[in-house]
Amino acid sequence: MNFLKALFGPSRKEVWRQLSSELDGQFHDGGLFGHSAVQARSGDWTLTLDTFTSGDGKTNQTFTRLRAPYFNPEGFRFDIYRAGVFSGFGKALGMQDVEVGHSRFDRDFVIKGNAPRRLRRLFGNARVRRLIQAQPKIQLTVKGRDGWFGRYPDGMDELHFQALGAIKDLARLRNLFNLFTEVLWQVCHGGRADADDVPFHVRRLSAPGGRIINKYVLWEGNAPRRDAAAQLGRLGDPAAIPALADALWDEDPALRLPAVEALAAIRHPDAVAPLIPLLGDARKAAGLRFRDGVAEALRQLGEGELVVTVGAALGGDSGHLKAYNGGHRAEIIAALGHALQGSSGAHAANALAEIHAVEALPRLREVQRGLGTRDATGQAVSAAIGKLEARAALPRAAAATDVEVDTLPRSAQAPGPDPGTLPRSSQAP
Questions:
Q1: In terms of DSSP bridges, do strands 139-143 and 156-164 run parallel, antiparallel, or are they unpaired?
Q2: To 5 degrees, how large is the angle CA 257–CA 259–CA 263?
Q3: Does the pLDDT value for residue 149 go beyond 60?
Q4: Where are the beta strands (DSSP E) in 72-222?
Q5: Which of 60, 164, 191, 305 is the most exposed place for a label (fewest CB within 10 A)?
Q6: How far apart, in whole angstroms, are the C-alpha atoms of residue 53 and residue 265?
Q7: Residue 36 vs residues 16, 39, 42, 181, 383: alpha-carbon distances, Å
Q8: What is the mean pLDDT of residues 202-225?
Q9: What angle separates helix 12-22 from helix 170-189, to the nearest 10 degrees?
Q10: Which has more confidence, 239 or 398?
Q11: Could you please report the per-residue DSSP string of 284-311?
């Protein structure tokens, strides 16, 4: 074994184990006949190095690949590879879409893409060019949602490198990981990594959550999004409110509470409306702690009376709600609508009827189709539908402004003689 090592150098597994250690990553041992892999984190991305075999069964070839799924909502695509024997002919036919303005680089590489300005900005980065030029063989591309990659969520693509052969040159492998890190930062964040940059964290929050798994976990989306929500709360910029509002109903229960707390920390009036419907959130994953967090956030935003009013209605007392004139009617109705399928469903239905919320009829009918009238909630929903449908059928009273003053009838005046023609009374001399 030592003789073979001296003759051929360290094995690929030994090199990849060392690379994994240097990157503070994880080495997956494929065993005697399987394919090993190295995985390492870079920012919010997981980079996976492995090998695969392609062929017709008679003549197979081994390829080394490095890949990293990432959030790419703009659909930016590119493909870059070294110019070869046939690529010059391709250039003459216009197959090279973009020249980036660096003569040696443009001479040595074929670059294709769908956004020339972004391509020039990406490959105008000196570090990116230097890392690409250090690779003796390279095909670096963005793979879209075709084939297996169609399993990715909307907005996700994959940065993908592959080269013929099983690479065991440690310096070259280090270079590849550095290249991926630099390209991902440039493509996703314009090269910025400022902890106080609101758009940076909004983009992180907007990326898909969950996990993408093939043989290995290729994407872990939840932890970065939770961190992004917390950072946006710390920064306190109202520009983050729409993204945080979207996160309130996310499938990840551990993201929703940081989003609530961030909206409270921003302390802006626009943060109130997205929170109110959550007072009636009946999802099992929500839990009492989450609803208490929503109520506390609204109190911090100056809406303590609203919290008491909705809470009383969900407890069976609609008196406060009927007298409430603090606004946010649509959001309160949404909260009651969400509560219909929870333990306070009957009270929520009664409250909607009490405040004549005819706009809640579609939601009530939806719940009725699922519940029927087999329990108290179903019966209360049916009763509320009956009351609101009857109210919706009533003719609308005409407002005073509905009639123009000029069209009103005027009182008749009888015509009389001209006062100047009437006889005058005689006067005694």
A1: antiparallel
A2: 120
A3: no
A4: 78-82, 109-113, 139-143, 156-164, 211-213, 217-220
A5: 60
A6: 52
A7: 9, 10, 20, 22, 64
A8: 92
A9: 40
A10: 239
A11: TTTHHHHHHHHHHHHHHTT-HHHHHHHH
